[in-house]
From TrEMBL:
PANTHER family: BNAC02G40300D PROTEIN (PTHR47074), POLYNUCLEOTIDYL TRANSFERASE, RIBONUCLEASE H-LIKE SUPERFAMILY PROTEIN (PTHR47074:SF48). It comes from Glycine soja. The lineage of its organism: Eukaryota, Viridiplantae, Streptophyta, Embryophyta, Tracheophyta. Coiled coil: none annotated. Pfam families: RVT_3 (PF13456). Residues 4-77 form the RNase H type-1 domain. InterPro entries: RNase_H-like_EbsB-rel, RNaseH_domain, RNaseH_sf. One of its GO terms (molecular function) is nucleic acid binding. This is RNase H type-1 domain-containing protein.
């Protein structure tokens, strides 16, 4: 949950308006996209995520299985060990 919140804060600070957040944690995606927050332990983080998502003109949070998103998983795993401040402005066509 903390990683999604950090990603939302980071992209908000960068000034992006159209963004898709993907997660391989279905429970978090379901809680963010549902009308109510199901798990109380995440209430504060979920509320903060929802509040920040409203700042984007167009955003989406979606579930993607780790197996289907191996590039992002490998990148995230690598970035945990290499802290850097870089953004990439490109879209991958599917």
């Amino acid at each position: 949950m903390g990683t999604l919140l950090q990603a939302i804060r980071w992209t908000t600070n960068l000034g992006y308006q159209k963004i898709i957040f993907e997660s391989n944690c279905k429970m978090i995606v379901d809680n963010i996209t549902s009308a109510t927050i199901v798990i109380f332990d995440f209430h504060v983080s979920m509320s903060k995520c929802r509040e920040l998502l409203l700042k984007f003109s167009n955003s989406r949070v979606s579930f993607v299985r780790r197996q289907a998103n191996n590039v992002a998983y490998t990148l995230a795993k690598t970035l945990m060990f290499n802290v850097w401040n870089q953004s990439f402005d490109y879209t991958i066509g599917i």
